[in-house]
Design goal:
single chain, alpha+beta, 46% helix
């Protein structure tokens, strides 16, 4: 979120709107991108963001307008992480219920702000941990390849569904035509996206010979261990 909000973030405690404004964005996991003056000595133009990547914000010192222009850069390179088989899920209703019934007297009666902060953080962390459930993700919803998108995964599942339906009714000409066209479309799309991904990965590492050969072995499936035939030959007396 970028815009001229007219709330001076540099005013501190002098402006009662600052705390409620920052708390509102913090409740959604968004942080301010800079605390630099954009008009005179006031920080009125804000950049609020939520991203695991790095964000750099520049305030340009120019007289084009009465407000200094803002320029933000965000690293868009995201590494692919396959969806895990078991993922933690938060029971939000249970967490809210436990927090409403919790005893906050040690926090409210303490005169040491550091101690009160640690107690509050420990209380919230323990509540979240105790109300986290391990959920098994079905194989049909897992993405194991970096070039497969959620939409393409649905396309694959629909292709498989049409195949099973066609197997039950092999004499249905309309169903056969629908499945054949959809299968060809889905397979061609899979091949296209895979080739684009491999091409982009190759261009990314082309200046490093070691990484080039490692990538070639990866796409050619040369990293898999070869099984030894000695154990198979020892099963019987004669090879």
């Amino acid at each position: 979120m970028v815009g001229d909000i007219n709330i001076n973030l540099l005013s501190g405690r002098n402006d009662p709107n600052v705390d409620s404004y920052l708390n509102l964005f913090a409740s959604h996991g968004m942080l301010t991108g800079h605390l630099l003056p954009t008009r005179l000595r006031n920080c009125l133009d804000h950049v609020m963001f939520k991203s695991p990547n790095c964000l750099v914000t520049l305030v340009l010192d120019t007289d084009i307008t009465d407000h200094a222009p803002i320029l933000s850069f965000c690293d868009y390179k995201v590494k692919f992480h396959p969806v895990r088989r078991v993922v933690p899920r938060l029971d939000i209703a249970s967490i809210v219920s436990h927090l409403e019934q919790a005893d906050y007297s040690p926090v409210l009666t303490s005169h040491d702000p550091n101690y009160a902060t640690n107690v509050l953080i420990a209380l919230i962390s323990d509540t979240i941990t105790n109300n986290t459930i391990a959920t098994i993700i079905p194989n049909k919803n897992r993405i194991l390849k970096p070039w497969i998108t959620p939409g393409l995964l649905r396309c694959i599942r629909n292709r498989d569904y049409l195949f099973r339906k066609f197997k039950k009714h092999p004499n249905d000409f309309i169903l056969k035509t629908t499945f054949t066209r959809y299968r060809n479309f889905c397979n061609n799309l899979l091949k296209k996206l895979k080739r684009e991904y491999e091409r982009n990965e190759f261009l990314r590492v082309k200046k490093n010979p070691a990484k080039v050969w490692a990538f070639i072995k990866k796409i050619a499936n040369l990293n898999s261990e070869q099984s030894n035939s000695a154990e198979l030959l020892r099963i019987c007396a004669k090879p």
